[in-house]
Amino acid sequence: MPPRLLVLIPSAVAINLAMGFLTNQLGLPLYLDTIGTVLTAALAGPVVGVMTGIVSQLVRSLYEGFIWLPFGLVQVVIALLAALVARRGGFRSTGASLAWGALVGLVAGAVSALISYLVFRGVTATGVTAITTLLSGAGLTRAQAVTVASIGTDLADKMIVLALAGAALRGLPVRVAARYPWALRAVGR
Amino acid sequence: MSAVELRGLNFRYAAALTDALAGVTFSVDAGEICWLYGAPGAGASTLLLAAAGLAPRFTGGTIEGDVRVLGDDPRTAEGRHRLRGQIAHLGAVPDLQLSGVAENVFEEIAFGPANLRWPLDRIDAAVREAAGRLEITHLLTRSPLHLSGGEKQRVVFASLLALGPPVWLLDEADSALDAEGRGIVAELMLAERNRGAAILVAAEDADAMLGVADRVVLLDRGVIAFEGNPRELLSHDLAWERGPGGTSIAGLGRAAHARSNAARFAPPYPLGVSEAAARWR
Amino acid sequence: MRLHPYTPFVLVLATALLAFLLPAPAGPMALYAAVIGAALLSGMTKTVAGGALVTLPLWAFLVLLHVVLPGGDGLAAALAQGARLGAVATASLMLLRSFNPSRFLDAASARGSSLSAAFLVVSTLEAAPRLRRRAAMILEAQRARGLRVGGSPAARLRALVPLTLPLVLGTLSDVDDRAMALEIRGFGGGNARTPLDPPATTRRDHLYRWGAVAAVVAAAAWRIA
After folding, report:
1. Residue of A5, A174, A184, A189 to mutate when probing chain B, most B C-beta within 10 A
2. Which of B32, B252, C7, C202 has the most CB atoms less than 10 A away?
3. How do strand B167-171 and strand B87-90 relate by DSSP bridges?
């Protein structure tokens, strides 16, 4: 593997992990922990994005327990989708990024809900569990509650992730963007 | 055959309107300290990256012309393989040059030699010698992440020194160092030169380089404006017209010349205090 | 006698598997107790506290979901799930405490395993705290320039931009400098390197690893039967 990727992937994963700190400080109920994955997919293609997602989940599992490992699949799905978005120049504007983000959010949310229910019977990420609890109390079945909670949070989360990633990609100096085969296409140039 | 040979080198960054380097031709011999002098943006960093084979590979852009280091082209895969561990390219920011996988300074310095598959006893000797010469032996058990900027840069120097490279390409590499550190590195470079290393240094500090450089190459907007004796360059107006200027004393001399027609203020300007005192008496 | 770098990974993986295979609620709770015991024996008392802290919020919701609200599976289920998470979290933290990046790379190299893969993980573990500190510095710098951290949800969302963009752009611009430094020092990613402190697989390693495998197999067999 070329040295640039050996540095890019850990950096992107570290960005994923650092976003939790920022959302915490701002008091936002979001994770934004896929922004690094989206970025590498948009810069260097789906394979690199998938690798970022897997390493991200692995390292996160080391810090927070291997409970989260099955959600690696969500990262993989997001990486593939992000590469697709990049290919279509979906990061060329905030509007486009948000729209694509909604789509990614729906798909990611569905996959997340599936894993959540199958593996954990609905008890996982604190935020989702909180909403699930509320919805259960309101009368939905557990399955329904988990699905709604999952997709709802993912929609907002992914829209913001893609919007931020798009802004970053557009903000890259051309000199730097030109080093990455997918970057210029991703922002529609 | 020189240690570093550049011939007709043109380089342009991606999406740039002008060349960063144009028609650059010069060589650095073994046992020589060549000073690369130029204003920010003149192309010195780019030149060093091209000589190291790192541009355009890591920087993007297009390159034309010949680059030869120890007879090999560092831009080709074969050349890179043969030149592994032979070229010490150093930047100004120490944090970006640490491996990120070393538990302590010993491992950090040993990173290069270990990658080159040296036997353990050779690695051990090289690490200890390098640490000794940079005066950081007391830091060998410390984590490289928790050192000061100056200490980190000494670790970076030691890491490359341990490889015993015959070619050094330094890009403002002493800006993170304190005065003591800079003194150690200057001595080190002189020692390596005396051992036959070829050293190309990009530096802004004319006063410091005057005592160290064997030759100077003045770079102005990607083009070589002067090549030769440092004293010759720094004592004439060319240094200001196409470069960052001469030594501080020479600068005084130039200012005096601007105000007075007296012969003693005319170029060549004195470069140091004693010279000035003698000239201007 | 130090353990081979791979052994803690085997143990953590086994803990994760056992957490789900062992019959609830006694199984996971016993596992959690065992992990805590191992941690205390190794002198890692803070790790135990850390593990508990990480899973604390989850415990609250678990109780809510399974005990307080209708449709839950009862206290036993809540205890089991909490114990599972606690056991795995604590085991993971123990792994992190004992992790030595250089020895891990040497172990991967000695096995002929992909040095690149090992490097990715090790490098990430080094980069993560560094970037977090960078994010904190960016936050302070922007605050000093007048950025407000509170306010309406929309304002807080907008605040993400001057915090995230500098982090991402700064990190990306460093990538090439770092990559170049690795290249200069002969790191190609694929090639094996001289081990600086060759990790040996001792009897204790074999004991722990096979013990872990046996435990998982036994639990699986019990589960199936």
Report:
1. A174
2. C7
3. parallel
CA distances from B136 to B88, B123, B142, B156, B168 (A): 19, 17, 10, 11, 21
The 3-state DSSP class for residue B159 equals helix
Cα distance between residue B119 and residue B100, in whole Å = 22
* DSSP output for C121-133: HHHHHHHHHHHHH
What pTM was estimated for this model as a whole? Answer: 0.87
Task: Single out the residue of A90, A12, A73, A19 nearest to residue A44, CA to CA.
Answer: A12
Strand partners, B21: B11
CB contact under 8 A, B163 and C187: no
CB contact at 8 A, B83 and C169: no
Instruction: Give the Cα separation of C225 and A149 in Å (integer).
Output: 36
Q: Which of C23, C24, C50 is nearest to C35 (CA)?
A: C50
CA distance B80 to chain C (A): 10
Residue with tokens 């960052």: B244
Compute the distance between CA of residue C2 and CA of residue C12 in angstroms, rounded to an integer: 17
Rounded to whole angstroms, the Cα distance separating A77 from A87 reads: 15
Q: pLDDT 10s digit of each residue in chain B, 281 long?
A: 899 999 999 999 998 999 999 999 999 999 999 999 999 989 999 999 999 999 999 999 999 999 999 999 999 999 999 999 999 999 989 999 999 899 899 999 999 999 999 999 999 999 999 999 999 999 999 999 999 999 999 999 999 999 999 999 999 888 889 889 889 999 999 999 999 999 999 999 999 899 899 999 999 999 999 999 999 999 999 999 999 999 999 999 999 999 988 888 888 999 989 988 888 87
Q: How many CB pairs under 8 A join A and B?
A: 21
For residue B268, cis peptide bond before it (omega within 30 degrees of 0): yes
- Tokens in use for C20? 């789900």
What residues of chain A lie within 8 A of the CB of B100, using their CB?
10
Q: How far apart, in Å, are the Cα atoms of C104 and each of C157, C172, C201, C218?
A: 40, 26, 13, 29
| Distance, CA of C76 to CA of C84 (rounded, Å) | 12
| Alpha carbon distance C115, C78 (integer Å) | 41
Q: Do A175 and B58 touch (CB under 8 A)?
A: no
C100–B85 C-beta distance less than 8 A: no
Burial of A164 (0-12, 13-18, 19+ CB in 10 A): buried
Q: Is B45 helix (H, G, I), strand (E, B) or coil?
A: helix
How many Å apart are CA B59 and CA B171, to the nearest integer? 16
Residues of B (191-210) whose Cβ lies below 8 Å from A = none
For residue B139, give the nearest of B150, B126, B151, B127 by alpha carbon: B151
C186 to B115: CB separation less than 8 angstroms, yes or no: yes
